[in-house]
Design a protein that fits this description.
Elements: E1 4-7, E2 14-15, E3 34-37, E4 71-74, H1 77-82, E5 87-95, E6 100-101, H2 108-115, E7 126-130, H3 134-146, E8 150-155, E9 163-164, E10 172-177, H4 183-193, E11 199-201, H5 208-214, H6 216-225, E12 231-235, H7 240-255, E13 264-270, H8 275-281, H9 292-301, H10 320-327, E14 330-334, H11 336-350, H12 356-370, E15 380-387, H13 389-395, E16 399-400, E17 405-407, H14 413-424
Parallel strand pairs: 5-15, 7-8, 7-11, 8-10, 10-17, 12-13, 12-15, 13-14
Antiparallel strand pairs: 1-2, 1-3, 4-5, 5-6, 9-16
Helix pairs in contact: 2-3, 2-5, 5-7, 6-7, 11-12
């Protein structure tokens, strides 16, 4: 239903969607392919449901049931506390009074409802998604409601995040990796499974629908504020949401009605898991090597588990390093204590509970104000990537998805394929 083509930034080749392309067809670069929409000026189509009011800039061929959209409003409580006159909060989650109706409480719904509506030649196969929790919960909801076959790969330590207020359809299955494993271990299992003919990868940051779905946070903010913000704050695990924000920003510059500047990306990580912070501070495009056991231990220690991606799209052309460089951005860090204190402050001043990752982002905003890195009258967008979950849990009976199988830490390729085959032949 949306008119667009895909473009390879490495060679400029444009091509039609439909084959679930994740890379340049010529395979001559790791650069992220991107969407080029025929409609340069965005219409907010309020007559369309949920996320799909932004359909003009989503690579979709259908609309699925049950989506919510990001909601942007001008802060009063937090803004007053920090002395800011133009702080805007983009809230992704459950807050009915604000019109926020993401029933999984996370902006991962934005990507799930976009990805699952993208033209797809693999409709007779099973989509595979690796996740540290929130993405799995969002895709489980979307795929269950719309009968889309899905296999989730999640570390067992993160499986308490895979819940729903409704029984999930049997088309959704869940496998995991043993306690002590992390998101990268789940990614490894998912990559092995995707070598099997019956499965295909969702694609992560390489999937244009994921990035453009996450970019709807900026579409919400800009169309509400009436201009491109000066600063964009968000916590990052993979950095895909910040890349998406940068790409959406550039579309608005082409739109021509909201300004011609790039908002400064102000992203943050949770101490001690800070690989992108360390690389950025050293002006290094490449992430520094890290022992797997050390990385797993760091991932266990952080309160924002969703920020523990060991292999983020930081270095590749069009990745987070380029986004930060072009926007003259900064990377912050926050301790668990700072993140949880910021979340408490948000609840007290704004009235909604937020997730630890959003607490990390709020803590980085507090730091930036304290250190004079943002002007008090600057137009600031704070992307609250997850919120209202504690309220939703109080108001609803939750059903937790039990794993269909748990893989050992170093499961061989043959073993993984054998057990997945048996799972689907039951």
């Amino acid at each position: 239903m949306t008119d667009y083509v895909l473009e390879s930034p490495c060679c400029g080749m444009q091509f039609a969607d439909g084959d679930w392309a994740l890379d340049c067809p010529k395979k001559d670069s790791t650069a992220l392919i991107r969407t080029c929409y025929v409609r340069r000026q965005l219409r907010v189509r309020e007559e369309l449901p949920g996320l799909y009011k932004f359909a003009d800039w989503l690579p979709i061929s259908r609309m699925l049931e049950g989506s919510g959209a990001p909601v942007t409003y001008k802060s009063k409580g937090l803004a007053k506390e920090l002395g800011l006159t133009n702080l805007y909060i983009t809230f992704n989650g459950y807050w009915p009074e604000k019109g926020a109706l993401m029933l999984t409480g996370t902006f991962k719904e934005c990507e799930a409802y976009s990805v699952c509506a993208r033209p797809n030649r693999n409709s007779d196969k099973v989509m595979v998604v690796a996740s540290a929790g929130n993405t799995a919960r969002a895709f489980a909801r979307v795929c269950s409601k719309n009968k889309i076959p899905l296999l989730l790969c999640v570390p067992q330590d993160c499986m308490n995040s895979v819940w729903s207020s409704e029984e999930l359809d049997p088309c959704v299955k869940l496998v995991g990796t043993v306690p002590g494993s992390d998101y990268f271990d789940a990614i490894r299992i998912s990559n092995i499974i995707c070598e099997m003919d019956e499965f295909y990868p969702e694609g992560g940051a390489k999937n244009v629908a994921r990035r453009d779905g996450m970019g709807t946070t900026v579409l919400s903010a800009v169309t509400t504020i009436g201009r491109i913000p000066d600063y964009y704050f968000q916590a990052v695990g993979s950095g895909t949401g910040a890349i998406a924000a940068w790409e959406a920003n550039k579309r608005f510059i082409e739109d021509g009605r909201y300004g011609n500047h790039l908002m400064k990306l102000m992203v943050s990580q949770n101490i001690p898991f800070v690989p992108m912070y360390e690389a950025w501070k050293a002006n290094s495009r490449e992430l520094f090597p890290c022992d797997a056991a050390v990385a797993r231990k760091q991932a266990e220690e952080i309160c924002a588990k969703v920020l523990s991606n060991r292999k983020p799209p930081f270095s590749m052309p069009g990745g987070l390093f380029d986004a930060l460089t072009e926007t003259k951005g900064e990377v912050f860090v926050a301790t668990n204590e700072e993140a949880l204190q910021a979340a408490d402050m948000f609840l007290r001043l704004e009235g909604a509970d937020i997730e630890p990752a959003a607490g990390v982002a709020t803590a980085s905003l507090i730091q930036a104000v304290r250190d004079g890195k943002v002007a008090k009258d600057a137009v600031i967008m704070l992307n609250i990537t997850g919120g209202g979950i504690q309220r939703f849990k109080r108001e609803n009976r939750l059903i937790y998805k039990s794993p269909d199988f748990i893989f050992p830490m170093e499961a061989s390729e043959g073993y993984v394929k054998k057990m997945v085959t048996e799972l689907y032949n039951k």
